Amino acid sequence: MSTDYQHAREALGARLRELRLSAAGGRLTGPQLAARLGWPHSKIYKLEGGRQTAAPADLRAWAEAVGHPGVTDELLAQLKAFESHIRSWRRQLAAGHRPVQDTWNQAVDRARTIHVFEEAVVPGMLQTADYARHIFLRYASLYGTKQDTEAAVRSRMERQAWLYRGGRRLHALVWEAALHALVCPPAVLVAQLDRLAGTVGMDTVELGVIPLAASLKVPTANGFWILDEQLVIAEDWHAELWLDEADTVASYLRVWETLRESAVYGADAQNAIGRARRALNPRA
To answer: What is the C-alpha separation between 273 and 180, in angstroms, rounded?
Structure first.
């Protein structure tokens, strides 16, 4: 978990503990507050210790239970401040994948230069509709979320209009393993590889492939996007991270530049894509 996120969660927990100890009518013990709220007392200590993220309803109930309803807005603002950076998949996907894609579209639309590294999938802005469809279906199945797949696919495809505007530049790095990953049927992956090969040479796209046999200065860890060298969006299994602190962005840029040293471009990138395609269809 992000250190900044954990520190923020602990700070909120400390504020909750302070409110419990200064409750109207006298301080409350953890078990006493839990009894008022109808919660297991372990939840009190998890929230105060920063080991569990409070829901907005938890904060409202806490403020009421300790007799300080006036601090509700303060607590909610504190929660919103760090959740705007660490966006839980459970909460984000409650309404389906389309709203998440729409949020991405807004952020991308404002950017003029994007750096991306993906180690397991083809970058979203270079995906075919069929490939994207299978990605969304797999994540909806994993998280048990609403299957608004077609709406999500349309939103992701709309984002690709960015590639055809003047003055934009996508610097994409893909680990070769992503070209072989069967996250979709083989025929869909073949079409996706053809689409990827077609982006080599586009004036708005610089596509680099990091070969499996390449010497690496850093491991090919999780994928991430850098928008205008001001915002990093990275994904983990529990959440999507939106990070805009200058030193953090600079760290991700160093990682991207280091990975770039292992990448191949142009005809060599085409050869890497061709290897993946032939592995699916040796006669191709």
So the answer is: 9
